[in-house]
Give the backbone structure.
Amino acid sequence: MDSWLDKKLTERKEQDSLRTLTVPNEKIDFTSNDYLGLSQSAVLFKAIQRRLESLSPHLNGATGSRLLSGNSAYVEQVEGMLAEIFKARRVLIFNSGYAANLGVLSSLPQRGDTILYDELAHACIKDGARLSLASRFSFRHNDLHDLESKLKRAHGKIFIAVESIYSMDGDQCPLIDLVRLAEQYQAFIILDEAHSTGVMGENGSGLAVSLGVQDRIAVRVYTFGKAMGIHGACVAGSHRLIEFVINFARPFIYTTALPPHSIASIECAFQFLNQRPDLQIDLQNRIKLFLDSTRKMTNRIESNSAIQTAIFPGNESTRHVAHRLQQKGFDIRPILSPTVPVGKERLRICIHTFNTEAEILSLAESLQSVSF
């Protein structure tokens, strides 16, 4: 076994795309998804601890799947709170955004149906589509003309899988126009709100709610491990949708539920955000500062989100630039192929509320000194 594994790892190393784990460092964070700084909030940490101590009985784990021993009145209470925030009929908590997308896309589309997904959609959307018995096709990124050409040839029930904010380019889905197009072809939208949860909409309700189109989208998936600074996810939609997912989504049915600590974290994180609407404004101000400071960069992908990107084609080139910036004290990681297409290797830069103006300006100056 090891001989075969070594051969595969050597091949990846020769392709200059071998992945390795690294430990946290003391550099200035421009790489994590902790956009609002909630993961490091001492106030939120203490609130979660107090909420845990108030629960009875005191349990360390869920003890089983939600369909066996892992459900509780408290979990359903928190789901009710989330349903109000996301303006949904009902919400179902999942262990992660990956599991939620996998569960929805592997179970909802049936044999004879069609899944159309954005070519830059996250791996969990593509993996869920692969597990489905439906036909699946990608369309060019944010290209509604290409999508419509495929809608005309689709069969059965049609599902369109997209993201609110794309995790590598940081750009936004043209959601209003997409909703109109989907309705024209009687297609169902599956919207992944992973990178808009917390940073967009009232109380962190995401892009769809901020645009007022939530009721025109069949399935919404929210992730709590990014801007909310904790862990877990949920699927939001109609009562029938949630009942279907409970009955048919294997990543929900056959996994141990989240522990009470995670449920308390979800409840407290959204309560905390409700008390701090200024955090979204702070983030937007810092994003604007970064954009204004890097206008001359020709290799930067336009984005108004917390996710910013500078293209440095080639794994070796991207690693070299990242290393130079790391030497200057910035925690910035290279995103290499095959995670992104060959020639699209880049630095993925995340802006946070806790990044100071001086840090952002210093990064912008350093970036421009190494760009072409």
